[in-house]
Every structure is written in C-alpha cells, then in structure tokens.
Design a protein that fits this description.
Strand content: over 45%
Largest sheet: 7 strands, mixed
Distance between the termini: 40 Å
Number of helices: 0
Order of helices and strands: EEEEEEEEEEE
Shape: globular
Structural class: mainly beta
Helix content: under 10%
Radius of gyration: 14 Å
C-alpha cells in the first residue's frame, strides 16, 4: 500500500492559478498510474488528469486540458497539477490516487485506483 498526501489547495478567484502537489511514499511498483480526481458537492468523483509513473504518457479531461497540466518529478515521487484560468466549476475536493495494477494505463474509473490521499479543497469564487 502506498501513502499519498496532497497539498496546495485553497481559495482562488476566477482566472487565477493554483498548483497541487501529491507526494507518494511507500514501496512503489515498477509501473503505475497516478490520477488527479475531483469531487464537487452532490456529484460523482471524476478524473481530471492522469500520468504514468514514467512520465511518458498523460491525459486530461476535455474541460481542463487547455488549462491544467499534470507532471511528475520522478526522483521526488511527487506529481503536480498546475491549474490555470480557474473557473467556479473547478471547485471541489481534489484527490490524487494510484492504480498499481499491472498493465493498467490511466484508467478512467476511480474504482481502478487502490491508494488515495485525503484530498485538498479547491474553491474558485470571486
């Protein structure tokens, strides 16, 4: 089991920026995927972005792909989500999660991810 810790959330105005960090500790497998998910009140948890542990593959959902960038610092075992041009609809609790299953590459469903952080709140409001 891995331990994940998110940081960097907060209150930001529309159009502003935040950078989230996800620190991963524990014995990591050779290949795994790290996803950023968010959950707004009353809505299902949705995948925002994902990156492989090698950093060679990443993706983001359509609503954020021109504004958010996911990256990984492999020596630090830390994944980042740079969020620019924030909108009120980006508000929610943001979680990072790891899918350790062999052969999985950035699956969409939250159920595929075994390890989760506690989440960090992001609020976008004027």
């Amino acid at each position: 089991q891995l331990q994940l810790a998110e940081s960097g959330g907060g209150l930001e105005q529309p159009g502003g920026s935040l950078r989230l960090s996800c620190s991963i500790s524990g014995i990591t497998p050779d290949h795994y995927s790290i996803g950023w998910f968010r959950q707004a009140p009353g809505l299902d948890r949705e995948r925002v972005s994902c990156i492989t542990s090698s950093g060679t593959y990443s993706l983001s959902r359509d609503s954020v792909k021109d504004r958010f960038t996911i990256s990984i610092d492999i020596p630090k075992n830390t994944v980042y989500l740079q969020m620019n041009q924030l909108r009120p609809e980006d508000t929610g609790v943001y979680y990072c999660a790891v899918d350790r299953t062999e052969g999985h590459i950035c699956y969409r469903s939250a159920h595929e991810y075994e390890d989760w952080g506690q989440g960090t709140q992001v609020a976008v409001s004027s």
